[in-house]
Write a structure and sequence with these properties.
2 copies of one chain form a homodimer. Chain A is α/β, with parallel strands linked by helices and 335 residues long. The first copy, chain A, has 14 helices and 11 strands. In chain A, α1 links the parallel β1 and β2. At the A-B interface, α8, α9, α10 and α11 of A face α8, α9, α10 and α11 of B.
């Protein structure tokens, strides 16, 4: 397996990328193809990788900046590191592409270089939310701020493939994110999507709210990219607030400090639940190539975890399975 | 001051309402007007209130059920407890109305019985979110699943009045909830609302995400009722998940149990942050009368806190201030 890694993606690039590439090459024995400014990367890589783990450099002279308009610069900066990496993927020189760069940039480059899986209307960004019982795949979490009912139906199809083959959930339960559990609740988009999901043959369990999502009552939750993004970032932020306030109060007196020390195993147990870096990267489902987008704040550990997610996608043949699931529906619709 | 309380609102009505009414009458010395089925309420009230704190019963023969369609039943059940209570408010027999019943039902009844403040396009449900620095008023959290930019502009005006006069924040900072902080991010509604807020003369700080909201960087955050509701319920649910998992692990061994005991003051400090009952009730801003909607799961303590919120609204002349702020904008627009 060969994973292509954008060396210029994360906020602190390229250090985290260099470390993650060398570590992944060592751990998995896979070739990691690191894409970015060769003159910057070459000396650092040589210093980091004296034993010559299989990391190959591919030069990309341009970098997508956070201030770049994604759609415009995906074309204008034709040789940005994402573009070069995705061209390698398209040419079959790698099996998956991983970046911690701008999501909009990744989507624009992916649409331009790789295109969509045949029949897919809009690719979606999918991530796993921790729940009381494991994980729930939520999509779209930010690729499409405006959606149509047919997009959400396809998100449900693609999310189900993801949950079944990457999380190992047979016949995944699909929920529609809404402002009330009752059928009939929702904004116009939700109300128009409900009957499509009901008739889809998927394991649709109806509208869900935060309670059902975090309670583990759904395996896949579909929503538009605006709402999904607000929910994701809101959940992360409220958890961070809670943990920070708790920490502050735990450090406030010798008594609570001792308590915190004794209770440490309980706090450790929370870590997996809280740590976005455990999850590593979100796949762009619907793109004709395996593209995984990690958090801009990723460190080497998070990027390693992103590479792990990409490897899992390759191993489980995610791309083919998505194509098959979408094609089956196109055929059904034509009949 | 006289507060009118819907006796048939909460999930476990009327017990929490009866207890809250008697307790409020005792604590504040105000008359509480309790509206509901007299034959049910009378004997229980007499048993609870032997010293005759000022609680008056007003009979309402019908009850809005969760299964009722709000708009239809607000009319069909003309003598439901919310309708009767709001008619009392309109007639000047009370200063504010409090219910823990269905939000949709409260809104439908309020629109039908009390109408809107002159110039208000859509009333909004507002609540306070806890933040790193205090509270942030978020609206709409569920009254209007579909919104237009002009509604959000008015939400910002009304939310600013709320923050200034009920939370004591001079010149409140107004944020627009979006899927990215940068101007230009957002769905169509956000993009169209941004210039209106920029030109509004309000203290508009731009787009905000969960990080800014929970970080206390805005005093008012405006959004459509669908997104606001998803954010509110999602935040509540993820916090509940976190607390439950932590509790479970704290109880897992004698060592962690002891740690939890010692660290108790730190956990206590979190309570105010976590407890939706601390906040009590959300006002329906824009209705021509002070209407506060509490959580269906409210117990007596939560309802007491809801009554307290309503009293604060009366004391600070919230209704007049909202009317003045909206009227000033109407006049400005006409000039």
């Amino acid at each position: 397996m060969r994973i292509i890694l954008d060396a210029m993606g994360s906020d602190r690039h390229p250090e985290p990328e260099l470390h993650a590439a060398v570590e992944a090459a060592r751990q998995f024995g896979d070739e990691i193809i690191l894409v970015g400014k060769e003159e910057v990367l070459r000396p650092r890589l040589e210093a980091l990788n004296p034993d010559g783990a299989p990391v190959r450099l591919v030069h990309a002279p341009e970098v997508l900046e956070m201030t770049d308009k994604p759609a415009r610069s995906a074309r204008a900066k034709a040789r940005n590191s994402m573009a070069v990496g995705m061209e390698l993927l398209k040419a079959g020189e790698g099996d998956a592409f991983v970046t911690a760069g701008n999501t909009g940039g990744a989507m624009a480059n992916a649409l331009f270089r790789l295109g969509r899986i045949r029949g897919v209307k809009r690719p979606a960004l999918a991530t796993r939310f921790p729940t009381r019982k494991g994980y729930c795949v939520v999509l779209d979490i930010g690729a499409n701020a405006e959606c149509k009912p047919e997009y959400l139906l396809q998100f449900a199809v693609m999310g189900s493939v993801y949950a079944e083959h990457l999380l190992g959930v047979p016949n995944p339960r699909v929920g529609l994110l809404s402002n009330g559990e009752e059928a009939g609740k929702g904004n116009d988009l939700v109300k128009a999507t409900y009957p499509l999901l009901e008739a889809s043959g998927l394991n649709f369990i109806g509208n869900v709210e935060g309670k059902e999502l975090f309670g583990g009552e759904a395996d896949v939750v579909v929503t538009d990219g605006f709402t999904g993004n607000v929910l994701l970032k809101g959940s992360e932020a409220v958890v961070r607030l809670l943990v920070d306030v708790l920490k502050e109060h735990l450090m406030a007196s010798p008594r609570t400090k001792l308590g915190a020390l004794l209770a440490k195993p309980a706090f450790e147990a929370l870590k997996g639940l809280l740590d976005p870096e455990e999850i590593g990267a979100a796949p762009l489902l619907g793109i004709n190539g395996l593209v995984f987008v990690g958090h801009g704040r990723s460190d080497a550990r998070a990027l390693l975890s992103a590479i792990r997610a990409a490897r899992q996608g390759v191993e489980n043949d995610l791309l083919t399975r998505l194509g098959t699931a979408i094609a089956a529906r196109l055929t059904a619709a034509e009949e």
